[in-house]
TrEMBL record:
Main function: Part of the ATP-driven transport system AdcABC for zinc. Required for transformability.
Pfam families per record: ABC_tran (PF00005)
GO BP: any one term: zinc ion transport
Protein known as: Zinc transport system ATP-binding protein AdcC
Highest taxon of the lineage: Bacteria
Amino acid sequence: MRYIDVKDLSFYYDDEPVLENISYYVDDKEFVTLTGENGAAKSTLLKATLGILHPQKGTVEISKLNNKGKRLRISYLPQQVASFNAGFPSTVYEFVSSGRFPRNGWFKKLTTHDYEHVEKSLKSVGMWGFKDKKIGELSGGQKQRIVIARMFASDPDLFILDEPTTGMDDVSRRDFYELMHHSVHHHGKSVLMITHDAEDVKEFADRNIHLVRNQDSPWRCFSVHNESHDDWRSE
């Protein structure tokens, strides 16, 4: 089932082409990485796909339903989202629990099932032992992990992640990639993730989309190159 289908997308900042004639897709139960050189407009592509930015040309189709026939839930994690200041008043547990509110409505009490989901989400990123800490007391890598836990608590069908492992150590990054692989292949989720750790993540991802510069043009124009999992791993 196709969750994202982008065809011939072009995006300009003022009159300068940044993305030109981009086509790519993401299916259900698929872990897809997005790579490219610095300045390759990877974040811009995600924002144009989600409608945060409006492309000048092309079509973006996002499925309304998930693979179970229910409304598709999307969770987007932008860059530097974990930049909380030291005075942020919430505890870790309160912050992650807030990811459950939209499922039941903002003014409904959380259920036992909700609290169980919050606990599992915190444990999945190794932060259960920090549940009573104030967010402002955490390190940058710990803040990033609780943002990811909140995302898991919301239980989306499609994760769209922009460099989610920023600030994590090598062990935490590998654990996160394994967690996303498990979510896709055991729980039917889908992942589209920008990463600079192409070598580290290749054993967990199913497919890579690589943004490359069009060398025949003086403009910052890019096209998409797809690599199958097998081709990627054989390099």
